Fold each of these.
Amino acid sequence: MYDKQDEKRLYEQAIYLLNADASDAATTVAQLRDCINYADWKYYVLSEPVLADVEYDALFRKLKELEHAHPQLLTPDSPTQRVAMGLSERFPAVSHLVPMLSLDNTYNAEDLLDWDRKCRELAGTDDITYCIEPKYDGASVSVIYEDDHLTRGATRGDGVMGEDVTVNVKQIRAIPLSAKLAAYGIKQMEIRGEIVIHKKVFEAYNERRIDQGLEPLANPRNAASGTLRILDPSEVRKRGLNAILYSISDYTLLPGAERPDELSTHYKSLQWLYSLGFPAPAREMKVCTHIQEVISYCTEFEARRDDLPFEVDGLVIKVNDFALQDKMGMTSHHPRWAVAYKFKARQAESVLRRVEFQVGRVGSVTPVAKIDPVPIGGVTVSSISLFNEDVIKAKDLHIGDTVIVERAGDVIPYIVRSMPEKRTGNEEPIIFPTHCPACSSLLEKQQDEAAWRCINATCPVQVVERIIHFASKDAMDIRSMGGANVQKFHDAGLLPDIPGMYSIEWDKVKGMEGFGEKSVSNLQQAIEQSKKQPLNRVIYGMGIRYVGETTAKTLAAAVSHISDFYNWDVEKLATLSDVGPKVATSVADFFARPENRNMIDKLAAAGVNLTNDHKAQQAAADGILAGKTFLFTGTLSRFKRSDAEALVESKGGVLLSGVSSKLNYLVVGADAGSKLEKAKKLGSVSILSEEEFMTLTGME
Ligand code: IVH
């Protein structure tokens, strides 16, 4: 991709551009792009950053400013175009050019020998070269390049159809937006790979989640696949995903072009992709000419699996020669020319020293084992959830026991078993408390449940957990009011309960360490804004047992005001879709309790929205613009833009922030610029003058 000289030139160019004033915009824009692409490649593909973050940001800002001042210089593959505008509404289903199959698994040398035997039979030769590369533990993706440009990125889905997540794939800076494929006679190419998240990035992300009072994600794989499907591309960008592209699944040649030699073997094809700037695992590949060599490499690699920056759950062994691959074919589930060698789950021995009992938001008491710290898969484990009393009994765990701890592909560790053979006689039974460790109330256990629960609604730990949940992102979304701040305010007596959020004595907060004018005013603003949250978020935030986000939406949609539930009994609640008897009982019980009604009264008095505006919803759903998308551009002369936008929404229309294939109408005022051009190019957008817009909306 870049030779030593290129690298030196681009680095010097970057430093020069950081200090120089732009003279010729077109040249500077091109140079800035080259430098940013180079810096992205060094950072994301090679993990060798060449610029400090501030330098990178400064270059990026310069490029953005120049493109803004000279829109004619903007191109779709400019690095600034990774910063997508607006929200994706949903991800359309798309079919893969070639189905995305799975892999067959092997676990030991014997399995590999078997597989090799079958390969030689199918290939009709003993002369097979194998190529080995890591099996990355992330989310599968398929990307398509057409005429040198990235045109589509899709999730695996069911293997035949996936979700079109192009906007998000473009946020991943390891994936080039363009590549010189036509120079090799390639018209279109589909490449497979894995979206991964650096172990360090994942840990930092989880720490942030914990700070915000959110549950940490279980493992980097979940984090990668979840992030890929987030509707807000700017959030995707912030999460710092990376990618590995490990297989060319399909390509078409330009008319008259011949297949390049680079596409004759798997090894050559990945080295070639790498040379073009793709994040192919070129440096992690091993070529073997005999299965014994494969076996040795697998054993040796397994021993150093934790040295890689990403989670790796095995190795993939592929027949190198593409012609042989074609001859061997595939089943409906997996190719016959490739196999995964799965690593053993990571285990370690440690000693169980004590058990702590933690109280959760709904009062369940969870036993947590404290063990001698032990490294497993690059992470030091010292604390392991035992879930409930039944697990302790089933595994026959005692204080002082030697235990086997495992971290499978997942980051969350668990105790596999105790080792009674190592007992000395000094072990002691684990005694489950009869009273709440936080408030000393008697614990209760319901017949069909495994967990002991503290049912004291004023239990201090539960109160804090409930407030944290109320403020959390998916509930009232009160920024900066995460676990740490809630605990601080609660301890200082400033936040006794959920409604207390709206009557915090800010003068007292200002005297607390770490709270300046700015942070206090941000917090106040966030709390004030939360009063306008829709009813479903309030209901979810109240933390009713078994009521998740979806049930909260169902409940909110069924009433005009939250207090309507005071007259709903279990039977009526159970008539709602997705509300079974267990949920209905929990909801009815919640609204029957005086302390909860009291909380609702206090929230109402504070001005928190507790109504469901059916009329507005219905009017929008019935509106003449229902489901249609709009965008305004240029200077409007007949009305203010904000009024026109409000009109669209009141009639059920949806506003978009940019021109895309999802846009139905572009309303054009005077001096319209690039948006109009783009809409015309797309051809699918109806372009309206102000007069036509007025006719459409019935204003004229
Ligand atoms: S090759 C038709 N190579 O593992 C070829 N897959 O368990 C199939 N994976 O769905 C894929 N690293 O998401 C291949 N180096 C690698 C891989 C890899 C991870 C994933 C892939 C696949 C899954 C199968």
Amino acid sequence: MFDPASFVEEKVGELQKEIDGRAIIAVSGGVDSTVAAVLVNRAIGDRLLAVFVDTGLMRKGETEYVDNLLRELGLNYRIVRAEGEFLSALRGVTDPERKRKIIGNTFVEVFERVAEECGAEYLVQGTIAPDWIESGGGLRDTIKSHHNVGGLPERMNLKLVEPLKDLYKDEVRSVARYLGIPVAERQPFPGPGLAVRILGEVTKEKLELIREANSIVEEEIERGAERGLMERPWQYFAVLLPVKSVGVHGDKRAYGYTVAVRAVESVDGMTAAYSKIPHEVLERISVRITNTLPQVTRVVYDLTNKPPATIEWE
Ligand code: XMP
């Protein structure tokens, strides 16, 4: 049985010996990077700088959420706003793997500047076991390149520290609970963010649309779970499809966007079953999305398991 208390005690001791200079970590507000940051902060205090890069590809309210979280956890941190840089790098790009590479590279460029400024010698990453397994760590073929395992350390000449690399998600969550980090029950969110939930080119207009639609999906599903209509799924979100379809607005024909709603049950993301969401909740999602976003004329629900589909649409 995994024991979070002895894991933390042992790890903090190891980290104190391992890190004898300044360190930097990119935090996303997700469980993995936050737990890694708190562990290293326990070991070396303010010699660790936590950096949150606002790519502009975040969910609604995410930057404010992370800002509060890092402040409450007492970390030494900085928020870097870089939406313009990411959007111009992504202009005209439609291929999902190219999007991931561009986002990964832009991320490295932004992060590198901060690391140089603060004189870091160590790079902390919140890599966990499934990340490197799914990224072709020798055990599986590469399915999607997960940018958080990308070329950061080699390029930056930093020593890599990965305190969670042997843990699985449920173990990381138990460490988070033990450390009192309020991120333990958050759903996973992909590094490339909303960019892989806009099929085709990423534009500011589409980002605003999917950000709003996604927040409606999250709110209505969470409300449905609170009202006892359903269990909260493992992951649930909206996807903007590259097809337009005909609809009516008043007595006029409209030609609008299609939003797909995706919700799945899973343990570790490797396999998944689509969630059997009650129709009452699905209907509220659909009505709210089309009322709030008149550019959307159709909302569909994804009924596919993984395999054969993946959880994300790109
Ligand atoms: P798929 O779509 O491959 O997703 O079934 C499995 C899990 O991984 C997340 N995911 C990503 N996470 N960078 C990430 O950090 C990525 O590029 C990426 N692609 C997928 C996905 O949200 C799901 O939890």
